[in-house]
């Protein structure tokens, strides 16, 4: 096995035992980037020399007993909405031409303090306003969408061109590309990970979280990221926590919510079969299945768009009026649509969110975790704009991908996607686990337990 194939936890163990140096690991991943990145388009920019210098410094520190922890010397990619001082934050948009960040974002600073090595910035759907990331290709099939908006981060992790990466999630933008590329994605509880220095799409829906190869890796990164930052008004005053799951797989006594409504409606049969099989595996590990009805489902789409579109429009108001021609057409149209929404529309969406949060809290008193598909279908072809379901319903691709992710953003509950197999043509399928606010330990425990029962996953076959 080459160093670039290692999970974060395995690489950390090897570095701590002095069996692998950060320089060897970073050189291996940079070599992988050189080989496959031209076919994938995961990165906006690769900072190879800066990464090599940081790896050399990490090696020097380790040799002198200054080991910073499990992220020491581990190479990462950051979605190009996340500020790193002195580097461009392009948001994959011509609007940001010439931009340079003046300081590190909170998450970049925390990862740097933990010893992680920045490889470069990964592509996003322009300003995170989309679910496909068209400039990036799926790691398993270059003719299919990568998913978005954190498509570059997910493809980098799936292809071995980053050991881990960060994404952002406003309506599924971590979980969708993670599921479509066969990796793990975690959207934390709203406010758990600070967003200071991260370009906003929709301030009341935005989250920052990790994309990794394993659940344990996601827990290691969350441990480094979580914690209060007064510069983010939504940041929660939570104590430092070690989120690493225990080694066991016994889920006896745990209640897994099995949705009777919404999450299995208009879902590809191959996706449903794989996810139900995975849920059955959780039952085999001792969990008890409890059927639940998802509340207020008829309001989910309207609430998601009613919050996101006006908030995005407010953020982009000045540049949309001065340089509209610099936006990609799909994003410009959505931003222009925000001007057609009234204050009353936005207030009604906020009220619906308040009611939905209360209903979800009541539902989550009955169960510990809800298990469901992450997305209703695997990655579609890059030129496909709609999907037609067996009942004749025609749905836009982005609408389909956001549909099962949006509830966790509206309510702020944590959500984790883990790979649970492939469809008949080899495209990855993800299972989504949703839990109570700030109960990431339970989500990670369940995801880890399932993962331990499965064969080790390799890198994407087309990468």
TrEMBL record:
Q: Which residues form a coiled coil?
A: none
Q: Which InterPro entries match?
A: Amidase, Amidase_CS, Amidase_dom, AS_sf
Any Pfam family from its record, for instance, is Amidase
Q: Where is the Amidase domain?
A: 24-444
SUPFAM superfamilies cross-referenced by the UniProt entry: Amidase signature (AS) enzymes
Family stated for the protein in its record: Belongs to the amidase family.
Q: Which PANTHER family match?
A: GLUTAMYL-TRNA(GLN) AMIDOTRANSFERASE SUBUNIT A, MITOCHONDRIAL, TRANSAMIDASE
Could you tell me what this protein is called? Amidase
């Amino acid at each position: 096995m080459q160093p670039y194939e290692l999970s974060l936890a395995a690489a950390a163990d090897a570095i701590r035992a002095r069996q692998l140096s950060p320089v060897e690991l970073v050189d291996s991943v940079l070599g992988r980037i050189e080989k496959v990145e031209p076919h994938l388009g995961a990165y906006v920019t690769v900072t190879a020399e800066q990464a090599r210098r940081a790896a050399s410094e990490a090696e020097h520190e380790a040799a002198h007993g200054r080991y910073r922890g499990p992220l020491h010397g581990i190479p990462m990619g950051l979605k190009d909405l996340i500020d790193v001082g002195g580097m461009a934050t392009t948001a994959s948009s011509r609007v940001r031409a010439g931009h340079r960040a003046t300081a590190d974002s909170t998450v970049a600073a925390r990862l740097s303090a933990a010893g992680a090595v920045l490889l470069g910035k990964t592509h996003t759907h322009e300003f995170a306003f989309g679910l496909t990331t068209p400039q990036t290709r799926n790691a398993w099939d270059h003719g299919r969408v990568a998913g978005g908006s954190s498509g570059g981060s997910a493809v980098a992790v799936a292809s071995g061109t980053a050991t881990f990466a960060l994404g952002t999630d406003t309506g599924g933008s971590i979980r969708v590309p993670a599921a479509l590329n066969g990796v793990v994605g975690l959207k934390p509880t709203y406010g758990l990970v600070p967003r200071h220095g991260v370009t906003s799409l929709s301030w009341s829906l935005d989250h920052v979280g990790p994309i990794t190869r394993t659940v344990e890796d996601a827990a290691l990164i969350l441990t480094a990221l979580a914690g209060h930052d007064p510069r983010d008004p939504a940041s929660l005053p939570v104590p430092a926590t070690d989120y690493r799951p225990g080694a066991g797989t016994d889920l006896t006594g745990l209640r897994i919510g099995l949705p009777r409504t919404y999450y299995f409606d208009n879902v590809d049969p191959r996706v449903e079969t794989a996810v139900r099989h995975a849920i059955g595996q959780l039952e085999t590990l001792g969990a008890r299945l409890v059927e639940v009805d998802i509340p207020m489902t008829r309001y989910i789409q309207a609430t998601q768009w009613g919050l996101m579109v006006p908030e995005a429009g407010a953020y982009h108001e000045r540049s949309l009026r001065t340089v509209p021609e610099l936006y990609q057409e799909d994003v410009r149209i959505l931003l222009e649509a925000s001007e057609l929404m009234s204050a009353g529309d936005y207030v009604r969406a906020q009220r619906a969110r308040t009611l939905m949060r209360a209903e979800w809290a009541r539902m989550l008193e009955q169960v510990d975790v809800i298990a469901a598909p992450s997305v209703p279908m695997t990655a579609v072809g890059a030129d496909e704009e709609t999907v037609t379901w067996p009942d004749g319903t025609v749905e836009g691709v982005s609408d389909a991908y956001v549909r099962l992710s949006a509830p966790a953003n509206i309510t702020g509950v944590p959500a984790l996607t883990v790979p649970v197999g492939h469809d008949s043509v080899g495209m990855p399928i993800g299972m989504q686990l949703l839990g109570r606010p700030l109960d990431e330990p339970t989500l990670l425990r369940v995801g880890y337990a399932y993962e331990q029962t499965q064969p080790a996953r390799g890198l994407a076959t087309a990468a």
